[in-house]
Amino acid sequence: MASTRAWFESVAEAQRRARKRLPRSVYNALVAGAERGITASANVEAFSELGLLPRVAVELPVPREQATTVLGQRIALPVIASPVGAQAVHPAGEVAVARATAACGTAMGLSSFASRPLSEVVAANPRTLFQVYWQGGRERVARVLEHARDGGAAGLILTLDWTFAHRRDWGSAQIPERLDLRSMLRLAPEALARPRWLLEHLRGGGAPDLTVPNLAGPGEPAPSFFGAYGEWMQTPLPSWADIEWMRERWGGPFLIKGIAHPDDARAAVATGASAISVSNHGGNNLDGTPAAIRLLPGVADAVGDQVEVLLDGGVRRGSDVVKALALGARAVLIGRSHLWGLGAGGEAGVHNVLEILRAGIDETLVGLGRRSIHDLVPQDVVVPPGFSVVTATAPGRARVA
């Protein structure tokens, strides 16, 4: 169907609408990447290097099958909303994402730095996976895990691909520590230039909340975003023994996000993880890391069917999803794509983005002559020589292609 005021036909159009609707600082925070933004751009561009090998005159069912299972959750399409903190693009924030993903029959990740409580989000979508960092040591982490369990999280996501605290600055605007009078006066011209966004927030209760309720201790006020961020920055990085302890302490579905190297994929399997996500934090970590889709084949080869493999980074079209699935992923996570939908149209905008991807997956399956996403094989994708950066060899080693 053609685009209308209430509907857009592509993720690129969602991005354009979000840019027009959001204050400059808010929009820039969505597109920013680390340092020069090399990895952020590479995540998207690498998909264009992959071709698809079409088939014709194949009898296919209508519709083609897209349902799968991730972390024990049955989802209607192989696309999950990735956890993203402090969603100031819309006053309903993560609750709007939860409602949209639930309506589309899929799951979502909720950041521990989210602006809405886990219980509210789970009420809107029971297939909510709670995301955590290694923050404050084992005692502190244990309290966060109890919060996730008490809040009804369907699974846990441990993020390991965000370790560089001071270089996430490519194109990014300054985020105030708190929205005091001085900050509001500084940002007022941007907000006034986007009256629809400002009116939405005024009707929704006021300025965006920069506290993180899911990291508050029992009986304690929610810490500020930067207060919690500071605690995380000062915590030594976890060992694989720490990660195994966390997995055992949680005792449920457990996804490790941020795997790039086959050796790390094997180590994740050894901890007993249920799933891993091949990810570079959307280009917001170590700039110069190869695109996630380039890393996927080597990681998938290294672990085989020992663990569920997901991909996070650069997905903008249904054909991108199909390429990732054919090269070894069970499903993908999307971050910027669904946030652009949220910025463009709130809950309806997120729903719109998911339906665009669902339709694109179906159209690509038809072009490939595949009845189901489960029928996809690597031979459906035309992969240029040298595309896969790291390939698996013997355990404990890796070979650069």
Notes on the structure:
- With 401 residues, the protein is α/β, with parallel strands linked by helices.
- The protein has an 8-stranded parallel β-sheet. Strands 1-12 form a two-stranded antiparallel sheet.
- Helix 4 runs parallel beside helix 14, helix 6 packs parallel to helix 10 and helix 13 crosses helix 14.
- The C terminus is likely disordered.
Give the tags.
401 residues; alpha/beta; 8-stranded parallel β-sheet; two-stranded antiparallel ribbon; 40% helix; disordered C terminus
Topology:
Layout: H1 11-21, H2 24-31, H3 38-45, E1 51-52, E2 68-70, E3 73-75, E4 79-81, H4 93-103, E5 108-110, H5 118-124, E6 128-132, H6 138-150, E7 155-159, H7 181-192, H8 195-203, H9 225-233, H10 240-250, E8 254-259, H11 262-270, E9 275-279, H12 292-303, E10 308-312, H13 318-326, E11 331-334, H14 336-368, E12 381-382, E13 390-392, E14 398-400
Parallel strand pairs: 4-11, 5-6, 6-7, 7-8, 8-9, 9-10, 10-11
Antiparallel strand pairs: 1-12, 2-3, 13-14
Helix pairs in contact: 1-14, 4-5, 4-14, 6-10, 11-12, 13-14
Q: How big a fraction of the residues is strand?
A: 5-15%
Rg, Å, rounded? 20 Å
Task: Bin the helical content.
Answer: 40-55%
Question: What shape does the CA trace take?
Answer: globular
Helix count, DSSP H or I runs of 4 or more residues: 14
Kindly report how far apart the N and C termini lie: 43 Å
Instruction: Please count the beta strands (DSSP E, at least 2 residues each).
Output: 14
Mean pLDDT: 89
Structural class by sheet pairing and helices: alpha/beta
Q: Which stretches are poorly predicted, pLDDT < 50 over at least 5 residues?
A: 396-401
For the largest beta sheet, what order do the strands appear in spatially? Answer: 4-11-10-9-8-7-6-5
Main β-sheet description: 8 strands, parallel
Topology pattern, helix = H, strand = E? HHHEEEEHEHEHEHHHHEHEHEHEHEEE
